[in-house]
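Researcher: Next entry in the queue.
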Amino acid sequence: MDTTTLATAAQEIDFSLLALFLRASLTVKIVMLILLIASVWSWAIIIQKFIVFRAARREADAFDRAFWSGEPLDELYEKIGAAPEGGSEKIFAAGMTEWRRSHRQDGVIAGAQARIDRSMDVAIAKETERLTSGLPFLATVGSTAPFVGLFGTVWGIKTAFEEIAISQNTSLAVVAPGIAEALVATALGLLAAIPAVIFYNKLSTDSDRIAAGYDAFADEFSTILSRQLDAAA
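Model: Structure for this entry, 233 residues:
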């Protein structure tokens, strides 16, 4: 087959992503679909976390202003009610609820400070878990997607060489489509992994900062309650 014929044959081959996917073997198609789903799911988590974190920061700022405004804590607690919404409100409500339970007519129940601290620690742990939910999936995609894509590429190249051996034709028009199909799997693996790694690091840092803010507030609130417990003792 001369050069002109090879060029004509190569031009007639469709190298679009859809065509490469449709021509790929079943195993490579499954790999591509897994990586595509992982990428879409990762972006859904990323967008959702940006929304959640922004709301958490806005709520924390608003609650800090209310908490340090000088309004009596009992009034603030009554205003929040039994169903607090944001993380800071839930931590404050947990501490205040235990504070009220630790009081009785003849004084303060022993060990009140420890119970208050544990109640707020539980609330912080729940909020931290809510903030970090989904992040392990990003870490998993970031660490495994390139290898899944590489597996698809290796399998695709193996299939391409088998087809070459069967056809006994090593021309570029025969070799190129199979290699191109195989390489798409690696490209999809990197396409899924790179954003997952970048945003996992970003979101983990943001989550740690928000959680640190919750810890700082709990410590300050615990100190205030401790002073009142000492005064009531």
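Model: The helical segments are 3-11, 17-23, 26-67, 73-80, 87-101, 112-132, 135-167, 172-232.
Researcher: Noted, moving on.
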